Amino acid sequence: MIAKDTIALVRDRTDIVAVVSESVPSLKKQGRRFVGLCPFHKEKTPSFHVNPDSGLYHCFGCKESGDVFTFLERIEGYTFAEAVRFLGERANVPVHVEHTAASSDADRQRREREALYGAMQVAAAFYEAQLRDHPSRGSALDELARRKLDPASETAAAFRVGYAPPGWDGLATYLRRQGVSPAVAESVGLLVPRANATGYYDRFRHRLMFAVCDAQGRVVAFSGRALGPIPGDDARDGGREPPKYINSPESPIYTKGATLFGLWQGRHDIRHEAHAILVEGNFDVVSLHARGLRHVVGSLGTAFTADQARLLRRFAADVTLLFDGDAAGRKAARAAEASCDAAGLDAKVALLPDGTDPDAFVREKGRDALDHVVRQARGLLEYLIDVELDESFSAADLRERAARIERVAAMLAKQTDPVVRGMLKAYADYAASRLDLVRSAPNAFGALERKVLSTARARVELGPRPSEARVRPRRPGQEERKAIVGALLDFPALLNDSEIKGILDLLEGESARIVAAIRQCTRAGARGEMTFDSAEFLAQMAPPIQAFASARLAAPAHETIDEARSTVMANARKLRETNVALEAREAAMDQRRHAGDWDAEVERAKHIATLVRERNGLGGR
Length: 621
Known about the structure:
The chain is of the alpha+beta class. The chain has 27 helices and 18 strands.
């Protein structure tokens, strides 16, 4: 557990503008704040604001907001503690963990995990060196040349491309010399214990190696592709044909179904494009990156899982599935539908010719041809409807037809938006009409009609009654109070202004609580200057208020404290007038209720006259 004082010190000594500028090169100063293109969604007009005074950022387009720690969590995938440590090192602030029974255990686990990451880092460096220097590396270089990939390129370096030598203990010997425990290397799948003897042997031998990185750029696994036999070596692995790929087993730092190959290398491009392309093979990812398509990730040879979809959703909301057009590609697209739906990804499908993978296609046809294929992508659900109602439908037996109808109906039933469901139903009608199912398979088509109609009826929800749906009128003075609170957020030092202090009594309810929190989080610094702890303040606010406050703190409306003071004074005058008018109205209503009581009417008339004089600025004259 990191001490609050340490977190505050790291935050105070970190220039949020400098940190954000590394990911947002378009950031430019505008008055008190900096404005640039948002790194979290694609936009042409800058709506991303950073305020160095409050240490906060806010995007008025996608509503992303937070402090410098939040920014690193979103951009780099750090945990909060990792972001604090990273910025602490950058600001030369020692970050110590407070030791409790629980934190000591957590610290031990962290050290164990760091040992695992360290072993993977050492192995990656070893494989890279072998690709440069090992005498048997020729097969690996030939394979890269066949794929038109330069081993000295930025792409090869980004993906830590290397070579696992053919010996049984090349890596094991190197790890021992580097002080890496064999048990640690075994736990991450680098070494395998010998079955009939003591010691370990290398899991990867004579293979072209790709490092698999997590969202923070740490090597967590490897994927090794088989290579052609070494000349004169007929005894490799007992003469058996090796599997095409060998991958690291799952470990404490690697879960295959929760990792995406190439996400670390392509994260900035994915955010910039607000779109990702999903492929199946590692070589597909590397090959497309080498040709400028860097917003590409791979599913590591597994079906696209819900965890992978949620991970990708942190970087973009749209994904195009770029698969083969064969049965395997259709199966992969169908399997991805549930994962995309669970993560809220808007998915499309782009199909390549049968038997062609993205790597081969881009090598043979070029980048422009692949761009064209991606632009022609269809919505995932439309594609799946086409798959179910294709030309093979008429030739299928009754059981298969029923299963297909059920799958189409299930896809429609999951759509909660009636407009989307109606559009998909119309597309299903179109697909069915192409096959003339209305005439050739009336029973099947009728079943689809009934299924969709029953689903639509089940999803009809009555809205509120007209009396319940009326918009509630704003409370008098609400806008004035909001303007006063906003000005105080722009310049919390106004709370020490003697004239402003007298105005604060006009605030009530939520606005009064916000001002009380501003005062509580404003303190005198070491040199007597007033400092406002924006993070502590926002932590006290309810979500609706937090959204308003974070946006205002990141993008203040006033450039100077005098401007903010004028806003407070002007809205205070309006608020007084509003309050006087309300009291006068209530007094008049009260007078009507008590008509006939002469003394009471005289007193109320005097009270109303006083209120009117106050409203007109005549005071007690």
